[in-house]
Amino acid sequence: MTPLTSLRTSEDEIEIINQLLLPHTTEWLPINSIPDAYDAIKSMKIRGAPAIASLASLSIAQNLSRVLKESPPPKYSGAHLDPLLDYLFTSRPTAVNLGAAIKRLRGKLDLLVKNGWEDTRALAQEIIKEARLVADEDVDRNRLMSKHGAEWLLADIAKHEKELENGKTNVLTVCNTGSLATSGYGTALGLITHLFETGNLNNAYYTQTAPYHQGSRLTSFELISLGAPSVMICDTMVGSLFQRFNIHAVVVGADRIAKNGDTANKIGTYNAAVLAARHKIPFIVVAPVSTVDLDIPNGSYIPIEQRAAIEACLVRGALHPISPATTDPAQAVVMMTPSNIDLVSGVYNPSFDVTPAELITAIVTEKGVAVKDGAAEFDLSSIV
Ligand SMILES: CSC[C@H]1O[C@H](OP(=O)(O)O)[C@H](O)[C@@H]1O
């Protein structure tokens, strides 16, 4: 079976799975330009922090490759690339991976120009190589962090002599952090996949994750495709699950991790973290190094994207909104930042929330696992 992924390429051709139609329809959409990539990210046809960064980078490579075919190719400098990078950056503000990828490409260009790369064709080819690396590095990185996280969890269970179920673990995850959120294998769902592949998974529980339903539509699709034992719960059922079942860990992804470990992730993650603390269940964040934003000291600096109110009133496939609540875009919070938290809309629809470091047990990247050892905040230096 072809491994599941959010996108595929052939030479300069890029295609993404239209995730708005999953799980009932698998439609591959061609991405033929940077505006196509911007629209796909903004409208969430493709979503997931690493996948967004991969598509943005590949669309830059596609653009450069096509311009190079013109003759004679225009003289390259930041002037051509900068506005394209700035435009892509504005597609979704919370996930830092997109910004990290754009910063990486801009840095590569500056370095080449600084080193006197005058040959336009050669310079552009170097940028194309770097852009393709952003996508290609993802799968191996995900497998590595998943192994780190799964091994840490199993060791922690053994250290605390916790009772397993059928000799295996029960874990809860939020949203979708698998192959559909990355270039393959996934982050938090990658850890769950590693547990399954090594015979250590009793059940993977996951929340539906309204209103986009990344859980009920995408995580279910991935876990069923994998053949992994899984149980879907409504977002409101996390507390009841912890009261009645032996859950060994909550494992989630991240869109941006601040220097102290505060983590922005899909809305509902903070709820699960508070309940996990109440039930003394380890809370594990799994994300690539490119998700860590050392430029911000804590989570209050993370911009929280507000999605259109109508998206919170639609049940996918239904003909009409489920609520008479106003969905007038003029009456909505556009972005939550330290300076703007005025709520004026009849529908509050933040796409993310921030879990404080104090509620997080471990943070896992491809470089390893960080724990707090009794401190209130993380020192992430060993895993970035
Ligand atoms: C490895 S994906 C990280 C992150 O992205 C998802 O958000 P969205 O579906 O809105 O792009 C979710 O927060 C995942 O945890």
UniProtKB/TrEMBL annotation:
Which molecular-function annotations from GO does this UniProt entry contain?
S-methyl-5-thioribose-1-phosphate isomerase activity
Q: Does the keyword RNA-binding apply?
A: no
Per the record, the GO terms for biological process are: L-methionine salvage from methylthioadenosine
Q: Source organism's superkingdom?
A: Eukaryota
Name the catalysed reactions. Answer: 5-(methylsulfanyl)-alpha-D-ribose 1-phosphate = 5-(methylsulfanyl)-D-ribulose 1-phosphate
Q: Which UniProt keywords apply?
A: Amino-acid biosynthesis, Cytoplasm, Isomerase, Methionine biosynthesis, Nucleus
Record's InterPro entries?
Answer: IF-2B-related, IF-M1Pi, IF_2B-like_C, Initiation_fac_2B_a/b/d, M1Pi_N, NagB/RpiA_transferase-like
Q: Name one Pfam family in it.
A: IF-2B
What's this protein's name? Methylthioribose-1-phosphate isomerase
Species the sequence originates in: Hydnum rufescens UP504
